[in-house]
Amino acid sequence: MRRWATLAVCCTVMLQSITALAAAPIRIGALFSVTGPASFLGEPEKNTLEMLVKQANAKGGINGHKLELVVYDTQGDVTKAVQLANKLVKNDKVMAIIGPSTTGETMAVIPVAEREKIPLISCAAGIKITEPVKKWVFKTPANDHLAAEKILNHAAGMKYRAIALLTVSDSFGSSGREQLKALAGRKGFTIVADEVYGPKDSDMTPQLTKIRAAKPDAIICWGTNPGPAIITRNVKQLGIKVPLYMSHGVASKKYIELAGTDAAEGVMLPAGKLAVYDRLSRKDPQYTLLKEYDQAYKNAFGTEASTFGGYAYDGFLLLTGAIGKGPATPDQLREGIEKTKKRVSVSGIFSMSPADHNGLDLNAFEMVRITKGDWELIK
Known about the structure:
Pfam families: Peripla_BP_6. Residues 1-22 form the signal peptide. This is Branched-chain amino acid ABC transporter substrate-binding protein. InterPro entries: BCAA_transport (IPR051010), Leu-bd (IPR028081), Leu_Ile_Val-bd (IPR000709), Peripla_BP_I (IPR028082). The chain is globular. It is of the alpha/beta class. The chain is built from 13 helices and 14 strands. It starts with a helix and ends with a strand. Helix content is 45%, strand content 17%. The chain has a five-stranded parallel sheet with strand order 2-1-3-4-5, sandwiched between helices. It has a four-stranded parallel sheet with strand order 7-6-8-9, sandwiched between helices. It folds into two domains: 12-144 and 286-364, 3-Layer(aba) Sandwich (Rossmann fold); 145-278 and 367-377, Response regulator (Rossmann fold, 3-Layer(aba) Sandwich), CATH 3.40.50.2300.
């Protein structure tokens, strides 16, 4: 009897240990440019992720796992991003990392994720982040070639043929310029001007003066604020009347605020559906999630949700969708993310595979026009 009692106690202890292990908290790391020039990206990303983790834990966690979030501000600095990525892995022992906010930071952090075998879900758009595929790296913004194609498809429909490019000389701008030039050639466009500006430049009238002399049918600007806002004002100041396209890198009301309502009038760009969810069909599979996100963000932070915060939302859903009921490991999470199918989220409907670590298509974007300080769907 004593032996059976001892065995029963041992089994109980083992069961309790297994249960405790299965329900162990999952520590998530995050790297966002909360301050610095890319704060318009990082601040809503941080706010969104903290809000979602709080909501999840209030409901008991994900499949019984409470979430622990460790967020660091990279300030948009590549060196700092690498240092903090190493800190998340070695000191904080995170299971996965969401972020960084920018393409340059992400490219610098990728070797850390690959070496340490930690899933990295970037919130940056550069196509080189996931092409070619890296085993441990995913990203949530649609690839920039999709945004470029969306712009050029619209321009083709408007019978524009001669286009001018004005791109920022950072990783995001260089990638966009590369995609635009490749696609323009295949789609029959002629690039009559190809100008570049620096991330800290405060006046682009010299480049725009050259562009005006080239007489393009349309101008495509590729960058993130404040540069595109300055360019928009410069275009207005120079009296340039040709259509102006912007990239998805300015798909927030902050761009309109910085450029000014008058100067931004008529500017066109590809934007995620969040910016125009109230104009979508109520049958759109993303509509309910987008509405709930926007309302929750407004309640928590007093302002509308942005496309950029949505990138962190996507990262959260991809990661938590990979959490099973048993013990979580970085490898198990990586495999779960890669097997994601038809996951409805802010930036689109994600379907990952071993050959595709972005999982979005052209349907991730809507073409919009700025009209009277707000977004208007282009039909």
